[in-house]
Design a protein that fits this description.
There is one protein chain. The chain has 448 residues and is α/β, with parallel strands linked by helices. It has nine helices and 17 strands. An eight-stranded mixed β-barrel has the order 1-2-3-4-7-8-9-10. A four-stranded antiparallel β-sheet has the order 11-12-15-14. Strands 13-16-17 form a three-stranded antiparallel β-sheet, with no helix packed on it. Strand 14 and strand 15 form a beta hairpin. Helix 5 runs parallel beside helix 6. It is globular, with a radius of gyration of 27 Å. The two termini are 35 Å apart.
Length: 448
Amino acid sequence: MSARNFWRRARYIIALGLIPVLGMSSALALTSSGPGARIHGIDISYWQHPNGAPIDFHKMYESGVRFVWIKGGDSQDAADAQALKYLKVDRPAAQAAFLYTGMYYFAYLPDTTTATAVQADALAQAQKAVWRIAQVGGYNRRDLPIALDLENNCVRLKSNGSCAKYMGRDLVSAWATTWLNAVAAKTQKRPIIYSSPSFLENLLVKSTELRQYPLWIARYGLNPATPELQPNSKTVGCYAHAWANADCSAQWQFWQYTSCGIAKKYGVPGGRVDLNVFNGPSYKFFDLLRGTWQPDATEMLPVNEPSTVVVDSQNSSTSDKPVTFVVEALRPDKSPVVTGTVNFTSLDSLLPSGTQKVVRNATGRWTLSVSDLAPGNYLGLINFVDITGTHAASNFPVTFTVAPAPSPTPAPTASPSPTQTTTPSPTPTAKPKPSPAPNNECANQIVN
């Protein structure tokens, strides 16, 4: 057997867990080939699968990468299903290529200012993340703890896509702490939190409870190969948050240092990919890996679990205004459902179901607006539906009246004076504006 084939076979045995993670596997699996002689890593999602193209994880390993973060969950159902699709493919393929893997969950915060509703939403989203780990068989010896991707406190959008409402620091902190604590309690592994230093400073309180969770920090434009550069530094001073140290450094375990990695260099289709480094030697990396968790029956994802729909409030008036409903959907234990959405169906074939808009207030709670309804007395259903099949469909009967809209008062028309004539001014020819220069997102980043 050639030396090359011997080491390939040795790595394969290690990947299967046939020898301990520590010891021999440390020497084989964790070379420090990243910037600053650090352990190098990458993070991926469906964006790294253009047109469904596969990733070459063996090439990724040969490039010096030793860990890969994979998007495995999302607060929104469609994005969550997409994440699951690629997690099922990428995780086993990466581990078979001798890489360590971690799953991250992308969180959207609820549109509420009630502390109990914020806590309920965090617990429901934590349950969703635990179910996702259970779906892929639980943690194995090559799995890092799940990471919470928390980088946006916008809870309501305007029609133009800009933010209409933000959640404040105390509620963001309560949500994050509840989610992290719940996942840690269920999996017996401390989850990791991912965010930017500005978000950590401005949106999370400086608590020792948060500091106990490992930090994955996102900071671009600084080269980890330069020892004096720290991801927590500002032009003057540093970011002050729960993970900041007295000397202006920060307690971080992973640093996402660029979104402009040369994708094909790492076996990834497309043009660019996020790159990361680990802060510390191999034994600290293995400290994060210690322990496995296998789900029992109570932690497995339910299939068509019974649900109950409750309409907390409704409001209707005239046909020029939408009818609104505040709706909750509950599991058998009265906790919020984890997936799904709601809609309205008119039971009168002569009256329409209107144009519908659903705003997620929190997990299992929505505001449903129905517009373009003709005047009339309505009998209909508020339906809970779940395309994931986790929770069974259910409905709630509603009645309401839509009155005719008031007739608008016509605006007076001004008659021109018979003695006045107006000569239109010539329209100046507008000079064409130069096309804006393309936005080069990688101009101030590390291209590696």
